[in-house]
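Thread title: Can someone regenerate the structure for this chain?

I was given the following input by a collaborator and told the matching structure tokens would be attached. They weren't. Posting the sequence so someone can regenerate them.
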Amino acid sequence: MELVGRDDALSDLERKLSAHEATGATISGARAGLQGMGGVGKTALATVLAHRLKDRYPDAQLFLNLRGADPEHRPPVTSIEAMQSVIHSFQPEARLPDTLDALMPIYHSVLANGGHMLLLLDNAADAAQVRPLLPPPNCLLLVTSRQQFALPGLETRNLDCLAPEKSRELLLKLAPRLDGHADEAAKLCGHLPLALEVFAGVVNDKRLFPVPELIDRLRTRQDKLAPVEAAFQVSYDLLSAGLRRRWTLLAVFPTSFDLHAVAAMLGDSVDSARDAMQELVNASLVEWNETNGRFRLHDLVRQFCDDRLPSSDRTGGHFRHASHYRDVAAEAGKLYLKGGENVLRGLELFDRERAHLETAFAWLQSRRDRESAAVLVSLVGAVAYTGNLRFNSRQLILWLGVQLEAARIAKDRKAEDAALGNLGVAYAELGDARKAIEFHEQSLIIDREIGDRRGEGIALGNLGAAYAILGDARKAIEFFEQALTIACEIGDRRDQGNALGNLGIAYKNLGDARKAIEFFEKHLVIAREIGDRRSEGNALGNLGIAYAILGDPRKAIEFYEQALTIACKIGDRHGEGNSLGNLGIAYAELGDARKAIEFHEQSLIIDREIGDRRGEGATLGNLGNAYKNLGDARKAIEFFEQHLVIAREIGDRRSESNALGNLGIAHFSLGDARKAIEFYEQQASIAREIGDRRGEGITLWNSALALDKLGDRAHAIARAEAALQIFETIEDPNAAKVRAKLAAWRG
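Best answer:
Regenerated them for you:
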């Protein structure tokens, strides 16, 4: 790869970055007014430099556009989004946190363990955006930006226009016809590489036009326009009307795109689109990457085209763009659902086209017509699985909320039903069961109105799950039984299995482990019958939990080990982590806290690897419990505090409540009853807020024990009585223990 006119800068940077201690470089444009100069060749220099250095960094070369200067005025990529993108390059199935503090250790761990890597962060906004992204020493970082800034350890290079002799050399290399006119042409192009390349493309493409005439056109345009824009305008004026329209329509693409996307957006056949793109590439108006088969418009080109795009063409182009990428999202979802290696292929496709998907969503969201609403509904539906792994909870809820509104505009009751159900599930995962119930109840109404029996069963099951979160196992059972009845009526064995498993969990929560085992065993039979290995693993894990409750941890371990074997065999990392965690709990029950810690530490590695923040928090809590059982309450508190931080970061109020309760128990074991009560009171406040009756009862009971320790027996009895009332209402097995203690206190 050559880079005419930048030989000295290229050689100097290559020499400096080849040194053993080199960490990277920032490449910016010399200032023109308040903004760094565009079209000066920053990205080209960085790309060639990266190519020359790639043998020193053979394990990975990553390119990321940080959108510091964006022609569509989209906000710059945040440091968080950039980190997530880099991590997903190595861990495509990870569900990642969405805070810098939580991402930083994952980001550095991934890069540190990835060998010798090169990162090219193009189009950075400023130093603040890049600073958190500085990689460990095994990596080389190249940054380009229109802004000038310095970062610790990085070389800096500020590019100005080319020297006149270098401009002349570049023009003659690209368009030998300019011999004798190169000096004037270079001056009119402002000695900017982008303008020089575009004008050379005009000269090569328009061979029937005398060079002096083309230069005269450039001179006329340059009187009114900046050099780069003047070169674009000469090209634009000389294009046929059809090709001019096609070129300006490409402005709807926010980033690189392939030929099929061009054909779909233009409404052309693939052959016609290829012919048009060939002409535009030949004229240096579009960049073509032969390696990945994708086209790209320089940001300044895209801005020029967008400024000349008629409103009617812009609307039609965006609609066709959105429709095409809706189909791309659907294809990614289909690949994901096929399982195996196709999961990664689906996620790779989603990641490759994510910028287009988000642009399509934003444009469709701005429309209020039924046709656009229908496309938006299907776009959000298409990312149901891939987006669930890639979007954080806030973005997921935003998309689902917009989908719900669009479904109502489109008067699509089925889509409205799906959006309501998915919103309910999303809020339930955040621990807001009452909000979830609101959405599931609306979904249930629609299912019954349109006669969708399967949808009705799913809504009933979701309602049961939400009431289970609230600690109301009896209410949950009512809904699960209704869901089971419908599944049996319509003959859906998978839904039958799910309902049976949910019923087992509900009876387990009521303390009836033997009844729970009956349901789990039926679920296991169905899972094996239909070949659903994941459900089989879940049923085995639940059987283990039930036997643990019955006081048979060794039997529980047998089931956990079977569940672990299945998870490993099918590549279910989430299930593997759960099984390891359950084994840890079982060994803790056997009094082997050291063995328990080993399993929890393995589970924690998986939680962090797949980005399961909720699972990570729960595992930290389990580690805290294991250390508490070893008598190391202070070590336990460290883990409980980490659990609390994660719960608050992801907005999981139930996990936050659990962490606060564990902190109270740990401080109580250290003899600090007053500190314990502080945590119990915070826990009680959350339990009441989210409607967690069982959690509220446990908190009241623990508070009673702490008050008694402080010698306040009267208030201890009052708290215990309040706890007993809750336990009796929800039929919680803790009721017997509280009754016994109250009897002892009353003498």
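Confidence is low (pLDDT under 50) at residues 31-37.
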